[in-house]
Task: structure prediction
Amino acid sequence: MATTELDVPDISCDHCASAIRQALTPQPGIAAVQVDVAGKRVTVEYDERLLALTRIEALLDEEGYPVESAAGSVA
Result:
């Protein structure tokens, strides 16, 4: 499993957080999604054998929440 933090500047409310969770959670390989509205960050725990980080970023973009930067893996 990998964990990554993504900067998503368009997060502004709990509705945004809910939309992001709904877009990511059902994807194969996603183990956990945490959205920090105040920090405008999304933390995703995922199996990189099943889902590439670029796909996670694309899913967010498709929902209207483009990723500004990926902080990379965190311990």
In short: The two ends are 10 Å apart (CA to CA). The longest helix spans residues 14-24.
